[in-house]
Amino acid sequence: MSTRPSKQLETFPNPAPERDYLIHMEIPEFTCLCPRTGQPDFATLLLDYVPDRLCVELKSLKLYIWSYRDEGAFHEAVTNRILDDLVAATKPRYMRLRARFYVRGGIFTTVEAEHRKKGWKPVAPVPLPEFEKGLSTRG
Fold first, then answer.
1. 125 within some domain
2. How many Cβ atoms sit within 10 Å of the Cβ of residue 134?
3. Is residue 69, in this structure, part of any structural domain at all?
4. Which residues 6+ apart lie within 8 Å of 41 measured at CB?
5. How many domains is the chain partitioned into structurally?
6. Residues ≥6 apart with Cβ < 8 Å to 116
């Protein structure tokens, strides 16, 4: 195997630091272990951030997410730890991580955590008409 899980998050310079723009990532293959039973927990992670000077490099993010596969962690703890690590690496203007865990014992769990850079205020969005729904290839 040429790659291995890693806690090392790499970054690269923001190509447009003069403006606020949103980066959205969907990570549908997150796994960790239940700290009580050792059974796997599965989640889709939704990451939204407004970068400042740095962006997270995607392969390092993939390897970082993979590093949780054999670790026991409560949903709340792992969501906040991932957010803390991403904030430490990129120092964004804004970041939100939503972890949507699959059903376990008849319960779906969603944990959402946010970071805002001190003094940062988002620019008001321009209201635009929406495109017709159902035309996306991703549904």
1. no
2. 6
3. yes
4. 31, 32, 33, 34, 75, 101, 102, 104
5. 1
6. 93, 94
Q: For residues 49 and 40, what is the distance between their CA atoms, to the nearest angstrom?
A: 28
Distances (CA, A) of 78 to 13, 31, 35: 27, 10, 11
Confirm whether pTM is higher than 0.70. yes
Tokens of 122: 């988002």
Residues making up the annotated binding site for substrate are 56-58, 75-76
Where residue 90 sits, what CATH number does that domain have? 3.30.1130.10
β-pair type (107-116, 40-50): unpaired
Catalytic residues: 34, 41
Domain span including residue 42:
21-116
Q: Can you give the pLDDT of all 139 residues of the chain as single tens digits?
A: 568 999 999 999 999 999 999 999 999 999 999 999 999 999 999 999 999 999 999 999 999 999 999 999 999 999 999 999 999 999 999 999 999 999 988 999 999 999 999 999 988 888 888 877 665 555 5
Compute the distance between CA of residue 56 and CA of residue 46 in angstroms, rounded to an integer: 14
Nearest alpha carbon to residue 9 among 72, 79, 82, 98: 82
